[in-house]
Amino acid sequence: MYKQIGILTGGGDAPGLNAVIRAVVRTAIGEYGMKCIGIEDSFEGILGDTHTVPLTTKSVSGILPRGGTILGTRNRGSFVKNVNGVPVYPEMPIGEAIANLDILGIEALIVLGGEGTLGIAEQFHKRGFPVIGVPKTIDNDLAATEFTFGFMTAIDIATEALDRLHTTAASHDRVMILEVMGRNAGWIALTAGLAGSADIILIPEIPFCFDAIVRKVQAREKSGSRFTNIVVAEGAVEVGKTEMYQDSETRRLGGVGDYLRRHIETLTGKESRCVVLGHLQRGGSPNAFDRMLGTNFGACAVRALANGETGKMVALQAGTIITVPLDEACTSIKTVPIDGQLVRTARDIGISFAAPKESKLAENGNSVPRVSATAPTTYITHD
Q1: For the whole model, what pTM was predicted?
Q2: Distance between CA atoms of 240 and 226, rounded to whole angstroms?
Q3: 205 closest CA partner among 55, 66, 340, 362
Q4: Which domains does the chain have, with CATH numbers?
Q5: 3-class SS at 21?
Q6: Which of the four pLDDT bands, split at 50, 70 and 90, describes residue 249?
Q7: Which end of the chain is more exposed for a tag (fewer CB within 10 A), N or C?
Q8: Distance between CA 368 and CA 346 in Å, rounded?
């Protein structure tokens, strides 16, 4: 049994991080008599002079509904370098970090993060340091778990935004475009689009064409609906083109919403507006589902350590929290199946994905056929 464990949060913040921290501390202290040390600012907190804080049941009291993370987080640092799109883990910072953990008396780590952060955690495991990972990303794109905490809260926020945009679009007969997060997977756009009554949903998995968008807008005009609501994932791409970046050097996505606005306005003559939801999707209090899931993940992560497991990630599968190997959890992302239930339902109720086939079939008065799902594309990024 470990006497003292550390906990850190890495990558972008997400609603529910504090719920996990609280559950880890209360379970470790109350059930197993372990001491807990919080590591500030992700892995960077165990380099150099180190930045840590003791965590007690009193210090985590009241943090369950709080957004963000009381430990701070980073999505860039010394532990991973991107070389031609492939992560490379320098030996020096990992070796220094493990040595500092020994000095601090921290015998095992619980790491909260996405595939990038968990990829770093796996390097600690490979060097013999006990680690358990907890999946965190609002994109819900980790393949080994059905849900990640933060996702449901992000959907709530995006759906409320669509509800609000619906009324202003209808009042002014406009095309309203909501840009949401989703680099490689369109789960937020798709789910919020269904819940928020979007007319067009654009996701990375289905390249769009303007001809199909224009036909959908014009078809709504003819039917008496003089406004159109569009939700687009930040990683959505036009046929034959690549993602749009605010900053190509750091590969920060952004701009697809305004790109759509300008072209739609030109092609249809309709006044168009774009709203970028951005970090509003990450901020604020987690909803009930994310509090519950984060709490379950935190408690089960401590239990896994106490049972001697290491190099694993807790995951939700078939309603049960299990553990899966970190290397399995970090090697691929979960993309939207283009012939899955949600896409089929969206098309059944008249939502367009602006695929080229939709435009050609609409011209001939036919419905969109079912297409076979493709294998998920493998990506590795630092979330």
Answers
A1: 0.88
A2: 30
A3: 340
A4: 4-149+286-330 (3.40.50.450), 152-282+335-364 (3.40.50.460)
A5: helix
A6: low
A7: N
A8: 12
